[in-house]
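Structure (tokenized):
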């Protein structure tokens, strides 16, 4: 049995950590690092449109501030988890109880906007400190995807201090170069869709997770906003990756569905 979880971090455009602040900014294109949301707002429409067209269910990790800015209209009826409130680094310094406060506030905001209590999470920057899993459990999060795991023939969900962890794979490509289950390099024009399909082909049992960002459908770090042509090519690439993986017999599922399938709780 092979399960495929497509995951989307719905966060501020081209986000970067800002020194001395827990809130993330956006990549400086000459006007400073204040957070921007335009590409994320556009990109989530493009992605949900594509996934609906393909009949593929996905899991969304919504950063609370971004979701408040762009609205949740594209996310109705979908599996929406949390991704920090202001895209914080949860390995950073917080006041006592601060991590729980921020994560609870993120849950409440996402619940207010989507009408559904989140049950999944991904930490911003995939950075999680030791106490985070128990905090997540306390606030009602059951499923997390904030860890990387070396790709083997089998990748199964596992228990991580109170939550069920579904890790993002890391592997080596045919040229022995490191490849991660994030589509980032493909959006930046540095990897073709085939690389991710080849990576998935090595899984024989378990859950293959791919991740991307809503904003990466509308802009890239290197070139800024995509032209119409570049945006279409980018969307076609995502379609090609997903279709290639489904062609190999993977079932597209949300995180909770995949966890259920493998009988771990
Ligand atoms: Zn993020």
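Design, position by position:
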């Amino acid at each position: 049995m092979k399960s495929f979880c497509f995951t989307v971090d719905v966060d501020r455009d081209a986000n970067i950590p800002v020194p001395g602040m827990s809130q993330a900014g956006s990549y400086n294109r000459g006007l400073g690092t204040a957070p921007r949301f335009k590409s994320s707002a556009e990109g989530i429409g493009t992605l949900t449109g594509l996934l609906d067209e393909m009949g593929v269910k996905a899991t969304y990790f919504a950063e609370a501030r971004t979701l408040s800015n762009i609205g949740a209209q594209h996310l109705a009826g979908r599996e929406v988890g949390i991704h920090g409130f202001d895209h914080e680094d949860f390995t950073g310094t917080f006041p006592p109880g601060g991590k729980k406060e921020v994560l609870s506030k993120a849950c409440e905001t996402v619940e207010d906007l989507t009408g559904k209590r989140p049950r999944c999470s991904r930490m911003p920057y995939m950075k999680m400190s030791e106490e985070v899993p128990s905090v997540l459990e306390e606030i009602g999060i059951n499923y997390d995807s904030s860890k990387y795991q070396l790709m083997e023939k089998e990748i199964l969900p596992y228990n991580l201090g109170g939550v069920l962890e579904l890790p993002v794979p890391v592997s080596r490509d045919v040229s022995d170069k490191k490849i991660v289950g994030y589509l980032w390099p493909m959006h930046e024009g540095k990897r073709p869709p085939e690389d991710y399909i080849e990576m998935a082909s090595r899984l024989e049992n378990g859950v293959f997770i791919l991740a991307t960002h809503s904003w990466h459908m509308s802009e890239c770090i290197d070139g800024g906003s995509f032209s119409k042509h570049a945006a279409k090519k980018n969307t076609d690439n995502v379609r090609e990756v997903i279709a290639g993986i489904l062609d190999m017999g993977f079932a597209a599922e949300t995180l909770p569905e995949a966890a259920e399938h493998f009988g771990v709780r």
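Reviewer-requested clarification: The two ends are 18 Å apart (CA to CA). The domain at 2-261 is CATH 3.20.20.370 (TIM Barrel).
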